[in-house]
């Protein structure tokens, strides 16, 4: 196991009817701005419940944060925060709303060009407004981590930043809120969380048994509960297990003390920015191809994963690795998430564009060994056609 420092201060309020607790969690002496997305929280009564629990608080609202939150939209929120002297934010939504809120929180207190927050990967962030979250979609783990992914729509740059200053103060996780998710978003969420675990697990062995077995437990949970939630959207236990698994998948616990990959995410982000394909779907395209391309380096962990998650019988390591990759593809497809570029009408031209953007962003030494250059990325994407 590698050395590590781990700290996660986010308070989680999990289970039935947690929204009323906002009355205690949101400081009453603050001016609060609720940030939300395209309107699902209005349609399903979540915003009303949130406002109902903040009766004694001065509340502003900012709606319209898009999936893959646009920098341009978030900057409008920053202007309002500054003008109205808002001093607490409350994100009510999925990963896009929470990520957008993290950016607003940091940009509101940043004196220079706010895009520097992104280009510096967050290193220029020294302070941010405090904020909390009400999560409506189990997927990204943003509710319990320090990362946000922001999309500058005008230039097609989708990039992440991270900072300890943008850890939520608290996150409300009510599994019942996810009953209303469209099938596509439920499936996306399971795939995104599943891939988060794999990015931190399918590398090379460092004999980190706690991290490995945590990862395998979470993967098994998503494997069992994903199809159940799709079949029966109001199965509380399935929704609860998926929600907690997705949070645990990316709250820093799994990556402490182990090598991590993240190449599928960085390549996938370019596909979303250029072609608007849902985040999880880009991962389902890239990861299997990347594994096939990097099978030699990853074969031991792939075989372990195959045995412990997909019950693949012990045999030759390479054969087990192949079967593990195939089982993963079958799982994504079973959830309705397609795994080839051609399924989304993308071909060689798209690959060339993705490579151009990866170069522009300097993302040309990816993966746990830093060996995925632009040339490797191109070759592996061709395997995803
Ligand atoms: O916008 P509204 O109307 O609210 O509708 C949303 C949106 O259309 C809808 N939705 C959310 N909760 C709902 C609901 N519909 C019905 N009932 C509910 N309870 O779902 C749609 C997608 O929402 P979005 O927030 O975009 O999805 P997700 O949570 O998957 O977030 C994706 C974003 O998170 C980033 C991705 O890159 C992407 O931009 N990620 C953030 C990470 C992080 N901060 O650590 C890590 C991830 O790898 C990921 O990259
Ligand atoms: Zn992701």
TrEMBL record:
Fe-containing alcohol dehydrogenase-like C-terminal domain span: 186-384
Annotated coiled-coil segments of the chain: none
InterPro entries with a match to the protein in the record: ADH_Fe/GldA, ADH_Fe_C, ADH_Fe_CS, BDH-like
Lineage: Bacteria, Pseudomonadati, Pseudomonadota, Gammaproteobacteria, Enterobacterales
Name of the protein in its database record: Iron-containing alcohol dehydrogenase
Keyword DNA-binding appears in the UniProt entry: no
Transmembrane spans: none
PANTHER family xrefs: ALCOHOL DEHYDROGENASE YQHD
Protein's UniProt keywords contain Transcription regulation: no
The entry's keywords: Oxidoreductase
One family name in Pfam for this protein: Fe-ADH
The Alcohol dehydrogenase iron-type/glycerol dehydrogenase GldA domain, residue ranges: 9-175
Domain of life: Bacteria
